[in-house]
Design a protein that fits this description.
This protein is mostly helical. The protein is 38% helix and 3% strand. Bound molecules: zinc ion (ZN).
């Protein structure tokens, strides 16, 4: 099966991301010291690594054997998140799911207990989430 180049060559750990050391070093240190924030906003133009960093962060915080803030990419959590088999990481298309009702439905569908450790909702085009939806999802007050 054909795999798009950006997926085939997407970095799988922070040290493979180039040109974003200020972001990857900060995230790695936070994971290493257990000082995570409840929300992260990745902002930048197309192709700067926003989705890549969010996906690495999702694996790193749930990894069963992280090293230096990096995901191992081998444990059940890393493999499950990468394959989409772990429901603790639900990608949200914010361009078409930007209303309060969408967020409420998403929260109701989410499992009450996290399986891997942390539950993450990477929201593509998060700037299109409505004000009330941002409050409902917990990224604004
Ligand atoms: Zn792992």
């Amino acid at each position: 099966m054909y795999k798009a180049l950006y997926r085939k060559y997407r970095p799988r750990c922070f040290s493979d991301v180039t040109g974003q050391e200020h972001v990857t070093d900060t995230l790695r240190r936070q994971i290493e010291h257990g000082r995570l924030s409840h929300a992260y906003l990745f902002v930048g133009t197309r192709g700067t690594g926003k989705t890549t960093c969010a996906k690495i962060l999702a694996r790193a915080v749930n990894c069963q054997a992280p090293e230096g803030g990096e995901p191992c990419n081998k444990c059940a959590s890393c493999v499950g998140i990468e394959s989409g088999g772990i429901l603790d990481v639900l990608e949200l298309d914010a361009a078409s799911n930007n209303g309060v009702d969408n967020v409420r439905a998403l929260r109701e569908e989410a499992l009450p207990e996290s399986l891997a450790g942390f539950r993450l909702l990477p929201a593509e085009l998060g700037d299109q989430i409505g004000d009330y939806a941002a409050v409902a999802i917990g990224i604004s007050s």
